[in-house]
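Hey, can you fold this one?
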Amino acid sequence: MRRSLLIRWIAVSALVALCAIAATALLAAKTTTGAIQQEQGQVFADDGSIYQGLLSYAAAHPDWTGAGPVVRKYAEATGRRVVLTTPQGKVIAGSDAEPRRLPAQPSVVIDPLSVDPGLGVPSTPDRIDPSAVGPYALTADEREDLLNLASKVQSCMEYYSGLADIEVGPGGHPRVVAPESYALTRCGGIGLEQPVKTEQIALEKLNSLVSACFGRTDPSSPAVGVPPMTWTFDGPVSTATDPATRSCVTSARREQLTPYVAPAAWLYITEKGSDQPPSGFTLSSENRVRLIALAGGILLLTIVVTGLASIRLIRPLHALTGAAQRMKAGETGARVRVRGKDEIARLAVAFNEMSETRERLETARKAMVSDIAHELRTPLSTIRGWLEATQDGISRLDQELAASLLEEALHLQHIVDDLQDLALADAGSLRVHPEPIDANVILTQLAAAHAPRAEASGVRLTVTPMDEPELTADPVRLRQSLDNLVSNAVRHTPRDGAVTVTGRREGGDVVFEVTDTGVGITSEDLPHVFDRFWRADRSRARGSGGSGLGLAIVRNLAEAHGGAVAVASTPGHGSTFTLRLPSEGPA
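Sure. Predicted structure:
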Protein backbone atom coordinates (compact mmCIF):
# COMPACT_ATOMS: atom_id res chain seq x y z
CA MET A 1 0.00 0.00 0.00
CA ARG A 2 2.79 2.45 0.91
CA ARG A 3 4.84 1.68 -2.18
CA SER A 4 2.25 2.51 -4.83
CA LEU A 5 0.56 5.86 -5.25
CA LEU A 6 -1.88 4.26 -7.67
CA ILE A 7 -3.00 1.68 -5.12
CA ARG A 8 -3.37 4.36 -2.48
CA TRP A 9 -5.48 6.46 -4.81
CA ILE A 10 -7.66 3.47 -5.70
CA ALA A 11 -8.01 2.63 -2.00
CA VAL A 12 -9.13 6.19 -1.20
CA SER A 13 -11.65 6.10 -4.05
CA ALA A 14 -12.92 2.72 -2.93
CA LEU A 15 -13.24 3.98 0.65
CA VAL A 16 -15.24 6.97 -0.49
CA ALA A 17 -17.46 4.75 -2.63
CA LEU A 18 -17.90 2.34 0.26
CA CYS A 19 -18.88 5.18 2.58
CA ALA A 20 -21.34 6.41 -0.02
CA ILE A 21 -22.91 3.00 -0.43
CA ALA A 22 -23.03 2.38 3.31
CA ALA A 23 -24.53 5.78 4.05
CA THR A 24 -27.08 5.39 1.26
CA ALA A 25 -28.03 1.95 2.44
CA LEU A 26 -28.28 3.13 6.05
CA LEU A 27 -30.52 6.07 5.21
CA ALA A 28 -32.62 3.97 2.84
CA ALA A 29 -32.99 1.32 5.52
CA LYS A 30 -34.01 3.89 8.14
CA THR A 31 -36.39 5.84 5.94
CA THR A 32 -38.06 2.88 4.22
CA THR A 33 -38.04 0.23 6.96
CA GLY A 34 -41.77 0.57 7.47
CA ALA A 35 -42.54 0.35 3.78
CA ILE A 36 -40.22 -2.61 3.25
CA GLN A 37 -41.63 -4.51 6.22
CA GLN A 38 -45.19 -3.69 5.20
CA GLU A 39 -44.73 -4.65 1.58
CA GLN A 40 -41.86 -6.91 0.52
CA GLY A 41 -40.84 -8.34 3.89
CA GLN A 42 -44.40 -8.72 5.07
CA VAL A 43 -45.44 -10.33 1.79
CA PHE A 44 -42.72 -12.95 2.17
CA ALA A 45 -43.61 -13.54 5.83
CA ASP A 46 -47.30 -13.84 5.03
CA ASP A 47 -46.64 -16.24 2.18
CA GLY A 48 -44.43 -18.32 4.45
CA SER A 49 -46.95 -18.43 7.27
CA ILE A 50 -49.78 -19.45 4.90
CA TYR A 51 -47.58 -22.09 3.30
CA GLN A 52 -46.39 -23.41 6.67
CA GLY A 53 -49.94 -23.59 8.08
CA LEU A 54 -51.40 -25.46 5.12
CA LEU A 55 -48.33 -27.70 4.88
CA SER A 56 -48.73 -28.69 8.54
CA TYR A 57 -52.40 -29.45 7.91
CA ALA A 58 -51.55 -31.62 4.89
CA ALA A 59 -48.85 -33.50 6.85
CA ALA A 60 -51.33 -34.44 9.59
CA HIS A 61 -54.43 -35.28 7.48
CA PRO A 62 -54.92 -37.90 4.74
CA ASP A 63 -57.06 -35.47 2.64
CA TRP A 64 -58.12 -31.82 2.40
CA THR A 65 -61.53 -32.28 3.99
CA GLY A 66 -61.92 -29.59 6.60
CA ALA A 67 -59.18 -27.31 5.15
CA GLY A 68 -61.68 -24.49 4.50
CA PRO A 69 -61.52 -22.94 8.00
CA VAL A 70 -57.70 -23.06 7.91
CA VAL A 71 -57.59 -21.24 4.55
CA ARG A 72 -59.99 -18.53 5.73
CA LYS A 73 -58.10 -18.08 9.01
CA TYR A 74 -54.82 -17.32 7.22
CA ALA A 75 -56.58 -15.10 4.65
CA GLU A 76 -58.07 -12.95 7.42
CA ALA A 77 -54.77 -12.83 9.34
CA THR A 78 -52.75 -11.66 6.31
CA GLY A 79 -55.34 -9.67 4.37
CA ARG A 80 -54.70 -11.79 1.29
CA ARG A 81 -56.88 -13.76 -1.05
CA VAL A 82 -56.04 -17.46 -0.54
CA VAL A 83 -57.30 -20.24 -2.82
CA LEU A 84 -56.41 -23.95 -2.68
CA THR A 85 -57.07 -26.13 -5.74
CA THR A 86 -56.25 -29.56 -7.08
CA PRO A 87 -53.60 -29.81 -9.82
CA GLN A 88 -56.50 -30.10 -12.26
CA GLY A 89 -57.86 -26.68 -11.19
CA LYS A 90 -60.77 -27.78 -8.98
CA VAL A 91 -61.17 -25.47 -5.99
CA ILE A 92 -60.63 -27.27 -2.67
CA ALA A 93 -61.08 -24.25 -0.41
CA GLY A 94 -60.91 -20.46 -0.77
CA SER A 95 -61.28 -17.23 1.16
CA ASP A 96 -63.74 -15.69 -1.38
CA ALA A 97 -67.45 -16.23 -1.07
CA GLU A 98 -67.68 -16.25 -4.86
CA PRO A 99 -65.10 -17.83 -7.19
CA ARG A 100 -62.85 -15.43 -9.13
CA ARG A 101 -60.32 -15.81 -11.90
CA LEU A 102 -56.96 -17.22 -10.70
CA PRO A 103 -53.43 -16.35 -11.92
CA ALA A 104 -51.89 -18.50 -14.64
CA GLN A 105 -49.36 -20.00 -12.19
CA PRO A 106 -49.82 -21.00 -8.54
CA SER A 107 -47.80 -19.25 -5.85
CA VAL A 108 -46.56 -22.59 -4.52
CA VAL A 109 -47.43 -26.30 -4.44
CA ILE A 110 -48.51 -27.72 -1.07
CA ASP A 111 -46.96 -31.18 -0.82
CA PRO A 112 -45.61 -32.44 2.56
CA LEU A 113 -43.58 -35.06 0.69
CA SER A 114 -41.83 -32.42 -1.48
CA VAL A 115 -41.32 -29.25 0.54
CA ASP A 116 -40.29 -26.01 -1.24
CA PRO A 117 -37.12 -24.86 0.60
CA GLY A 118 -37.34 -21.36 -0.88
CA LEU A 119 -39.93 -20.20 1.67
CA GLY A 120 -37.83 -21.00 4.73
CA VAL A 121 -39.91 -23.97 5.86
CA PRO A 122 -37.94 -26.72 7.67
CA SER A 123 -37.65 -30.09 5.97
CA THR A 124 -35.50 -33.21 5.92
CA PRO A 125 -32.69 -33.69 3.35
CA ASP A 126 -35.18 -35.59 1.14
CA ARG A 127 -37.57 -32.56 1.32
CA ILE A 128 -40.18 -34.38 3.47
CA ASP A 129 -41.99 -32.29 6.08
CA PRO A 130 -40.77 -33.43 9.56
CA SER A 131 -44.35 -33.25 10.87
CA ALA A 132 -45.39 -35.93 8.36
CA VAL A 133 -44.87 -38.84 10.78
CA GLY A 134 -47.61 -41.14 9.48
CA PRO A 135 -47.21 -44.64 10.96
CA TYR A 136 -44.50 -43.37 13.36
CA ALA A 137 -47.05 -41.45 15.48
CA LEU A 138 -47.14 -43.02 18.96
CA THR A 139 -50.31 -44.28 20.58
CA ALA A 140 -51.68 -42.51 23.62
CA ASP A 141 -50.41 -45.24 25.96
CA GLU A 142 -46.92 -45.12 24.45
CA ARG A 143 -46.82 -41.34 24.82
CA GLU A 144 -47.90 -41.52 28.45
CA ASP A 145 -45.35 -44.21 29.35
CA LEU A 146 -42.49 -42.37 27.66
CA LEU A 147 -43.43 -39.02 29.20
CA ASN A 148 -43.46 -40.60 32.69
CA LEU A 149 -40.00 -42.03 32.03
CA ALA A 150 -38.78 -38.72 30.63
CA SER A 151 -39.97 -36.87 33.76
CA LYS A 152 -37.99 -39.22 36.00
CA VAL A 153 -34.89 -38.91 33.84
CA GLN A 154 -35.25 -35.12 33.81
CA SER A 155 -35.37 -34.96 37.61
CA CYS A 156 -32.30 -37.18 37.86
CA MET A 157 -30.31 -35.20 35.29
CA GLU A 158 -31.21 -31.91 36.96
CA TYR A 159 -29.60 -33.30 40.08
CA TYR A 160 -26.31 -33.85 38.23
CA SER A 161 -26.26 -30.98 35.75
CA GLY A 162 -28.67 -28.48 37.27
CA LEU A 163 -30.58 -28.08 34.01
CA ALA A 164 -32.57 -30.46 31.83
CA ASP A 165 -35.46 -30.04 29.37
CA ILE A 166 -37.89 -32.42 27.74
CA GLU A 167 -38.35 -32.15 23.99
CA VAL A 168 -41.09 -34.02 22.16
CA GLY A 169 -40.56 -35.08 18.56
CA PRO A 170 -43.15 -34.81 15.76
CA GLY A 171 -44.27 -38.41 16.40
CA GLY A 172 -44.74 -37.81 20.13
CA HIS A 173 -41.48 -39.46 21.28
CA PRO A 174 -39.88 -37.42 24.11
CA ARG A 175 -36.20 -36.95 24.91
CA VAL A 176 -34.29 -35.20 27.70
CA VAL A 177 -31.71 -32.55 26.79
CA ALA A 178 -29.09 -31.42 29.33
CA PRO A 179 -25.58 -29.85 29.25
CA GLU A 180 -24.04 -33.00 30.78
CA SER A 181 -25.04 -35.77 28.38
CA TYR A 182 -23.04 -38.41 30.33
CA ALA A 183 -25.72 -38.33 33.06
CA LEU A 184 -28.29 -39.75 30.66
CA THR A 185 -26.99 -43.29 31.12
CA ARG A 186 -26.65 -42.91 34.89
CA CYS A 187 -30.26 -41.69 35.11
CA GLY A 188 -31.69 -44.58 33.07
CA GLY A 189 -32.48 -42.54 30.02
CA ILE A 190 -31.34 -45.24 27.58
CA GLY A 191 -34.95 -46.37 27.23
CA LEU A 192 -35.83 -43.02 25.72
CA GLU A 193 -33.35 -43.62 22.93
CA GLN A 194 -34.93 -46.86 21.76
CA PRO A 195 -37.87 -47.01 19.32
CA VAL A 196 -41.18 -48.24 20.79
CA LYS A 197 -43.36 -50.90 19.21
CA THR A 198 -45.20 -48.52 16.84
CA GLU A 199 -41.95 -47.01 15.61
CA GLN A 200 -40.27 -50.40 15.29
CA ILE A 201 -43.11 -51.78 13.17
CA ALA A 202 -43.06 -48.73 10.90
CA LEU A 203 -39.26 -48.92 10.61
CA GLU A 204 -39.37 -52.59 9.63
CA LYS A 205 -41.97 -51.79 7.00
CA LEU A 206 -39.78 -49.00 5.64
CA ASN A 207 -36.76 -51.31 5.43
CA SER A 208 -38.81 -53.83 3.49
CA LEU A 209 -39.85 -51.07 1.05
CA VAL A 210 -36.22 -50.06 0.57
CA SER A 211 -35.26 -53.69 0.01
CA ALA A 212 -38.09 -54.07 -2.49
CA CYS A 213 -36.69 -51.13 -4.41
CA PHE A 214 -33.54 -53.22 -4.89
CA GLY A 215 -35.43 -56.44 -5.63
CA ARG A 216 -34.78 -58.06 -2.23
CA THR A 217 -38.24 -59.58 -1.81
CA ASP A 218 -36.80 -63.06 -1.24
CA PRO A 219 -34.96 -63.27 2.12
CA SER A 220 -32.82 -66.12 0.80
CA SER A 221 -31.38 -63.95 -2.02
CA PRO A 222 -27.82 -62.67 -1.54
CA ALA A 223 -27.49 -59.26 0.14
CA VAL A 224 -27.06 -56.30 -2.13
CA GLY A 225 -25.42 -54.10 0.50
CA VAL A 226 -28.35 -51.78 1.32
CA PRO A 227 -27.68 -50.16 4.73
CA PRO A 228 -30.72 -50.57 7.01
CA MET A 229 -32.78 -47.58 8.10
CA THR A 230 -32.37 -46.61 11.76
CA TRP A 231 -34.71 -44.75 14.08
CA THR A 232 -33.91 -41.35 15.64
CA PHE A 233 -35.94 -38.78 17.55
CA ASP A 234 -36.29 -36.81 14.29
CA GLY A 235 -37.45 -39.81 12.26
CA PRO A 236 -35.89 -42.66 10.29
CA VAL A 237 -32.46 -42.04 8.76
CA SER A 238 -30.05 -43.95 6.54
CA THR A 239 -26.26 -43.92 6.38
CA ALA A 240 -26.32 -44.69 2.66
CA THR A 241 -24.32 -42.30 0.44
CA ASP A 242 -24.75 -44.04 -2.90
CA PRO A 243 -27.12 -41.99 -5.12
CA ALA A 244 -29.11 -45.10 -6.16
CA THR A 245 -29.56 -46.16 -2.53
CA ARG A 246 -30.53 -42.64 -1.46
CA SER A 247 -33.10 -42.58 -4.25
CA CYS A 248 -34.60 -45.86 -3.00
CA VAL A 249 -34.69 -44.54 0.58
CA THR A 250 -36.52 -41.36 -0.49
CA SER A 251 -38.92 -43.31 -2.69
CA ALA A 252 -39.67 -45.79 0.11
CA ARG A 253 -40.27 -43.03 2.66
CA ARG A 254 -42.71 -41.26 0.35
CA GLU A 255 -44.48 -44.54 -0.44
CA GLN A 256 -44.83 -45.27 3.28
CA LEU A 257 -46.15 -41.78 4.13
CA THR A 258 -48.45 -41.25 1.14
CA PRO A 259 -51.59 -42.84 2.77
CA TYR A 260 -51.17 -40.55 5.82
CA VAL A 261 -50.80 -37.14 4.14
CA ALA A 262 -53.05 -35.04 1.95
CA PRO A 263 -52.40 -35.13 -1.80
CA ALA A 264 -50.48 -32.29 -3.46
CA ALA A 265 -52.51 -29.12 -4.00
CA TRP A 266 -51.91 -25.76 -5.69
CA LEU A 267 -51.92 -22.64 -3.53
CA TYR A 268 -52.77 -19.21 -4.95
CA ILE A 269 -52.00 -16.08 -2.91
CA THR A 270 -53.09 -12.77 -4.44
CA GLU A 271 -54.15 -9.28 -3.42
CA LYS A 272 -57.54 -9.24 -1.75
CA GLY A 273 -60.28 -8.85 -4.37
CA SER A 274 -57.76 -9.28 -7.24
CA ASP A 275 -56.04 -11.97 -9.25
CA GLN A 276 -52.63 -10.22 -9.07
CA PRO A 277 -49.85 -11.33 -6.72
CA PRO A 278 -48.88 -8.92 -3.89
CA SER A 279 -46.79 -6.00 -5.20
CA GLY A 280 -43.59 -4.58 -3.76
CA PHE A 281 -43.11 -1.18 -2.17
CA THR A 282 -42.59 2.16 -3.93
CA LEU A 283 -40.29 4.87 -2.60
CA SER A 284 -42.11 7.96 -1.38
CA SER A 285 -41.34 11.52 -2.52
CA GLU A 286 -39.95 12.35 0.92
CA ASN A 287 -37.53 9.43 0.73
CA ARG A 288 -36.47 10.46 -2.76
CA VAL A 289 -35.60 13.93 -1.47
CA ARG A 290 -33.59 12.41 1.37
CA LEU A 291 -31.67 10.16 -0.99
CA ILE A 292 -30.90 13.12 -3.28
CA ALA A 293 -29.68 15.12 -0.30
CA LEU A 294 -27.53 12.20 0.80
CA ALA A 295 -26.05 11.88 -2.68
CA GLY A 296 -25.20 15.59 -2.59
CA GLY A 297 -23.53 15.19 0.80
CA ILE A 298 -21.50 12.23 -0.47
CA LEU A 299 -20.48 14.28 -3.52
CA LEU A 300 -19.33 17.11 -1.25
CA LEU A 301 -17.42 14.65 0.94
CA THR A 302 -15.77 13.17 -2.15
CA ILE A 303 -14.66 16.63 -3.30
CA VAL A 304 -13.23 17.47 0.14
CA VAL A 305 -11.38 14.16 0.49
CA THR A 306 -10.06 14.37 -3.06
CA GLY A 307 -8.93 17.95 -2.47
CA LEU A 308 -7.06 17.03 0.71
CA ALA A 309 -5.45 14.06 -1.02
CA SER A 310 -4.46 16.26 -3.97
CA ILE A 311 -2.86 18.83 -1.66
CA ARG A 312 -0.84 16.06 -0.04
CA LEU A 313 0.24 14.80 -3.44
CA ILE A 314 1.09 18.25 -4.81
CA ARG A 315 3.29 19.25 -1.83
CA PRO A 316 6.27 17.07 -2.86
CA LEU A 317 5.78 18.16 -6.46
CA HIS A 318 6.18 21.78 -5.31
CA ALA A 319 9.43 20.77 -3.61
CA LEU A 320 10.68 19.18 -6.83
CA THR A 321 9.72 22.29 -8.80
CA GLY A 322 11.60 24.54 -6.35
CA ALA A 323 14.72 22.36 -6.54
CA ALA A 324 14.57 22.39 -10.36
CA GLN A 325 14.31 26.19 -10.33
CA ARG A 326 17.31 26.43 -8.01
CA MET A 327 19.26 24.23 -10.42
CA LYS A 328 18.22 26.52 -13.25
CA ALA A 329 19.53 29.50 -11.25
CA GLY A 330 22.95 27.86 -10.96
CA GLU A 331 22.81 25.62 -7.87
CA THR A 332 24.24 22.38 -9.20
CA GLY A 333 23.68 20.31 -6.05
CA ALA A 334 19.97 21.01 -5.34
CA ARG A 335 18.29 18.17 -3.42
CA VAL A 336 14.79 17.35 -2.15
CA ARG A 337 13.79 15.39 0.94
CA VAL A 338 12.51 11.87 0.20
CA ARG A 339 9.53 10.61 2.20
CA GLY A 340 7.74 7.32 1.66
CA LYS A 341 8.24 4.74 -1.07
CA ASP A 342 5.53 5.59 -3.62
CA GLU A 343 5.90 6.90 -7.17
CA ILE A 344 6.56 10.49 -6.08
CA ALA A 345 9.21 9.30 -3.61
CA ARG A 346 10.88 7.34 -6.41
CA LEU A 347 10.69 10.49 -8.58
CA ALA A 348 12.43 12.45 -5.80
CA VAL A 349 15.13 9.78 -5.57
CA ALA A 350 15.65 9.96 -9.35
CA PHE A 351 15.80 13.76 -9.15
CA ASN A 352 18.43 13.62 -6.41
CA GLU A 353 20.44 11.12 -8.44
CA MET A 354 20.16 13.37 -11.50
CA SER A 355 21.28 16.37 -9.43
CA GLU A 356 24.20 14.40 -8.06
CA THR A 357 25.18 13.31 -11.58
CA ARG A 358 24.90 16.88 -12.82
CA GLU A 359 27.06 18.10 -9.97
CA ARG A 360 29.64 15.41 -10.69
CA LEU A 361 29.63 16.22 -14.41
CA GLU A 362 30.04 19.92 -13.64
CA THR A 363 33.01 19.12 -11.44
CA ALA A 364 34.45 16.96 -14.21
CA ARG A 365 33.82 19.72 -16.74
CA LYS A 366 35.69 22.25 -14.64
CA ALA A 367 38.56 19.80 -14.18
CA MET A 368 38.57 19.13 -17.91
CA VAL A 369 38.72 22.83 -18.73
CA SER A 370 41.60 23.18 -16.29
CA ASP A 371 43.37 20.19 -17.88
CA ILE A 372 42.86 21.57 -21.40
CA ALA A 373 44.20 24.97 -20.33
CA HIS A 374 47.22 23.27 -18.80
CA GLU A 375 47.83 21.11 -21.89
CA LEU A 376 47.60 24.09 -24.24
CA ARG A 377 49.53 26.49 -22.00
CA THR A 378 52.79 24.50 -22.06
CA PRO A 379 53.35 24.32 -25.85
CA LEU A 380 52.01 27.84 -26.32
CA SER A 381 54.36 29.18 -23.65
CA THR A 382 57.29 27.42 -25.32
CA ILE A 383 56.42 28.80 -28.77
CA ARG A 384 55.86 32.31 -27.38
CA GLY A 385 59.09 32.27 -25.36
CA TRP A 386 61.28 31.25 -28.31
CA LEU A 387 59.59 33.70 -30.66
CA GLU A 388 60.03 36.56 -28.19
CA ALA A 389 63.67 35.56 -27.68
CA THR A 390 64.20 35.58 -31.45
CA GLN A 391 62.44 38.95 -31.77
CA ASP A 392 64.61 40.45 -29.03
CA GLY A 393 67.75 39.10 -30.70
CA ILE A 394 68.56 36.79 -27.82
CA SER A 395 68.19 33.70 -30.00
CA ARG A 396 68.53 33.03 -33.68
CA LEU A 397 65.83 31.21 -35.71
CA ASP A 398 67.95 28.37 -37.00
CA GLN A 399 66.92 24.92 -38.28
CA GLU A 400 66.99 23.34 -34.81
CA LEU A 401 64.74 26.03 -33.28
CA ALA A 402 62.34 25.81 -36.22
CA ALA A 403 62.07 22.06 -35.75
CA SER A 404 61.39 22.52 -32.02
CA LEU A 405 58.67 25.09 -32.70
CA LEU A 406 57.13 22.82 -35.36
CA GLU A 407 57.07 19.95 -32.86
CA GLU A 408 55.21 22.13 -30.36
CA ALA A 409 52.74 23.23 -33.07
CA LEU A 410 52.11 19.63 -34.07
CA HIS A 411 51.49 18.76 -30.44
CA LEU A 412 48.92 21.56 -30.26
CA GLN A 413 47.28 20.27 -33.45
CA HIS A 414 47.18 16.78 -31.99
CA ILE A 415 45.42 18.03 -28.85
CA VAL A 416 42.90 20.03 -30.90
CA ASP A 417 42.15 17.02 -33.13
CA ASP A 418 41.66 14.80 -30.08
CA LEU A 419 39.33 17.33 -28.48
CA GLN A 420 37.33 17.53 -31.69
CA ASP A 421 36.90 13.76 -31.77
CA LEU A 422 35.75 13.74 -28.15
CA ALA A 423 33.34 16.61 -28.80
CA LEU A 424 31.81 14.63 -31.67
CA ALA A 425 31.49 11.59 -29.40
CA ASP A 426 29.80 13.63 -26.66
CA ALA A 427 27.35 15.06 -29.20
CA GLY A 428 26.60 11.61 -30.61
CA SER A 429 28.02 12.70 -33.97
CA LEU A 430 31.12 10.53 -34.02
CA ARG A 431 30.50 8.53 -37.17
CA VAL A 432 32.40 5.59 -38.62
CA HIS A 433 32.27 4.47 -42.25
CA PRO A 434 32.76 0.70 -42.21
CA GLU A 435 33.88 -1.12 -45.33
CA PRO A 436 35.46 -4.51 -46.04
CA ILE A 437 39.18 -4.23 -45.29
CA ASP A 438 42.28 -6.40 -44.85
CA ALA A 439 43.47 -6.02 -41.26
CA ASN A 440 47.01 -7.07 -42.22
CA VAL A 441 47.30 -3.93 -44.36
CA ILE A 442 46.48 -1.83 -41.27
CA LEU A 443 48.96 -3.82 -39.17
CA THR A 444 51.72 -3.37 -41.79
CA GLN A 445 51.13 0.39 -41.85
CA LEU A 446 51.13 0.43 -38.07
CA ALA A 447 54.49 -1.34 -37.85
CA ALA A 448 56.08 1.02 -40.41
CA ALA A 449 54.77 4.15 -38.69
CA HIS A 450 55.89 3.29 -35.15
CA ALA A 451 59.14 1.42 -35.88
CA PRO A 452 61.37 4.53 -35.94
CA ARG A 453 60.07 5.87 -32.61
CA ALA A 454 60.25 2.43 -30.99
CA GLU A 455 63.82 2.00 -32.22
CA ALA A 456 64.75 5.46 -30.93
CA SER A 457 63.31 4.56 -27.53
CA GLY A 458 65.13 1.24 -27.44
CA VAL A 459 61.84 -0.71 -27.53
CA ARG A 460 61.38 -3.84 -29.64
CA LEU A 461 58.10 -3.55 -31.62
CA THR A 462 56.62 -6.79 -32.98
CA VAL A 463 53.49 -6.81 -35.19
CA THR A 464 52.16 -10.27 -36.04
CA PRO A 465 49.96 -10.67 -39.16
CA MET A 466 46.51 -12.31 -38.81
CA ASP A 467 45.54 -15.66 -40.35
CA GLU A 468 42.02 -14.40 -41.24
CA PRO A 469 42.41 -10.66 -41.71
CA GLU A 470 39.06 -9.92 -43.37
CA LEU A 471 36.68 -7.65 -41.42
CA THR A 472 34.29 -4.74 -41.88
CA ALA A 473 35.40 -1.51 -40.19
CA ASP A 474 36.34 2.11 -40.79
CA PRO A 475 40.04 1.80 -41.85
CA VAL A 476 40.91 5.36 -40.77
CA ARG A 477 39.33 5.05 -37.32
CA LEU A 478 40.76 1.56 -36.81
CA ARG A 479 44.24 2.82 -37.66
CA GLN A 480 43.69 5.79 -35.28
CA SER A 481 42.69 3.46 -32.44
CA LEU A 482 45.66 1.12 -32.93
CA ASP A 483 48.00 4.12 -33.32
CA ASN A 484 46.89 5.46 -29.93
CA LEU A 485 47.29 2.06 -28.24
CA VAL A 486 50.76 1.41 -29.73
CA SER A 487 51.93 4.98 -29.08
CA ASN A 488 50.77 4.70 -25.46
CA ALA A 489 52.54 1.32 -25.09
CA VAL A 490 55.86 2.56 -26.55
CA ARG A 491 55.71 5.70 -24.40
CA HIS A 492 55.35 3.72 -21.15
CA THR A 493 57.81 0.91 -21.97
CA PRO A 494 61.39 1.41 -20.73
CA ARG A 495 64.46 0.82 -22.87
CA ASP A 496 65.12 -2.81 -23.82
CA GLY A 497 61.40 -3.52 -23.34
CA ALA A 498 59.02 -4.96 -25.93
CA VAL A 499 55.63 -4.08 -27.45
CA THR A 500 53.71 -6.81 -29.27
CA VAL A 501 50.65 -6.32 -31.50
CA THR A 502 48.53 -9.37 -32.43
CA GLY A 503 45.15 -9.99 -34.00
CA ARG A 504 42.83 -13.00 -34.03
CA ARG A 505 39.23 -14.09 -34.49
CA GLU A 506 36.96 -15.09 -31.59
CA GLY A 507 33.56 -16.22 -32.79
CA GLY A 508 32.03 -13.31 -34.68
CA ASP A 509 34.57 -10.76 -33.34
CA VAL A 510 38.05 -9.64 -34.34
CA VAL A 511 40.32 -9.03 -31.36
CA PHE A 512 43.48 -6.87 -31.43
CA GLU A 513 45.85 -7.00 -28.46
CA VAL A 514 48.68 -4.53 -27.71
CA THR A 515 50.95 -5.93 -25.00
CA ASP A 516 53.93 -4.11 -23.45
CA THR A 517 56.52 -4.88 -20.80
CA GLY A 518 56.25 -1.47 -19.19
CA VAL A 519 55.71 -0.37 -15.61
CA GLY A 520 52.11 -1.57 -15.54
CA ILE A 521 49.08 -0.01 -13.89
CA THR A 522 47.91 -0.50 -10.30
CA SER A 523 44.48 -1.95 -9.55
CA GLU A 524 43.36 1.40 -8.09
CA ASP A 525 44.20 3.15 -11.38
CA LEU A 526 42.71 0.60 -13.79
CA PRO A 527 39.12 1.98 -13.63
CA HIS A 528 40.42 5.43 -14.70
CA VAL A 529 42.64 4.40 -17.61
CA PHE A 530 40.09 5.50 -20.23
CA ASP A 531 39.19 8.78 -18.50
CA ARG A 532 40.13 12.02 -20.19
CA PHE A 533 43.42 13.65 -19.13
CA TRP A 534 44.16 10.84 -16.71
CA ARG A 535 47.81 9.95 -16.06
CA ALA A 536 49.11 7.28 -13.76
CA ASP A 537 51.90 9.50 -12.39
CA ARG A 538 49.30 12.05 -11.14
CA SER A 539 51.48 14.87 -12.50
CA ARG A 540 50.79 17.34 -15.24
CA ALA A 541 54.25 17.11 -16.68
CA ARG A 542 54.45 16.19 -20.34
CA GLY A 543 57.84 14.56 -20.09
CA SER A 544 56.38 11.27 -21.20
CA GLY A 545 54.41 12.90 -24.00
CA GLY A 546 50.75 12.45 -24.88
CA SER A 547 47.70 14.59 -24.20
CA GLY A 548 45.84 12.19 -21.88
CA LEU A 549 43.03 11.90 -24.46
CA GLY A 550 44.19 8.99 -26.64
CA LEU A 551 42.67 6.13 -24.61
CA ALA A 552 39.39 8.01 -24.17
CA ILE A 553 39.23 8.37 -27.97
CA VAL A 554 39.96 4.64 -28.41
CA ARG A 555 37.01 3.79 -26.16
CA ASN A 556 34.64 6.06 -28.11
CA LEU A 557 35.81 4.70 -31.47
CA ALA A 558 35.39 1.11 -30.27
CA GLU A 559 31.83 1.83 -29.09
CA ALA A 560 31.06 3.57 -32.40
CA HIS A 561 32.00 0.29 -34.14
CA GLY A 562 29.77 -1.68 -31.74
CA GLY A 563 32.78 -3.08 -29.91
CA ALA A 564 34.70 -2.44 -26.68
CA VAL A 565 38.16 -1.89 -25.30
CA ALA A 566 39.57 -3.32 -22.07
CA VAL A 567 42.84 -3.40 -20.17
CA ALA A 568 44.59 -5.92 -17.93
CA SER A 569 47.78 -5.04 -16.10
CA THR A 570 50.22 -6.21 -13.48
CA PRO A 571 52.42 -3.54 -11.89
CA GLY A 572 56.08 -4.08 -12.86
CA HIS A 573 55.22 -6.60 -15.60
CA GLY A 574 53.37 -4.56 -18.23
CA SER A 575 49.86 -4.13 -19.59
CA THR A 576 47.64 -5.61 -22.29
CA PHE A 577 45.03 -3.50 -24.08
CA THR A 578 42.33 -5.49 -25.93
CA LEU A 579 40.32 -3.94 -28.76
CA ARG A 580 37.30 -6.10 -29.72
CA LEU A 581 35.29 -5.28 -32.88
CA PRO A 582 32.49 -7.20 -34.60
CA SER A 583 33.84 -8.70 -37.82
CA GLU A 584 30.66 -7.78 -39.75
CA GLY A 585 30.73 -4.14 -38.70
CA PRO A 586 28.47 -2.23 -36.29
CA ALA A 587 24.87 -3.45 -36.01
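The chain is about 50% helix and 15% strand. Let me know if you want another pass with a different chain boundary.
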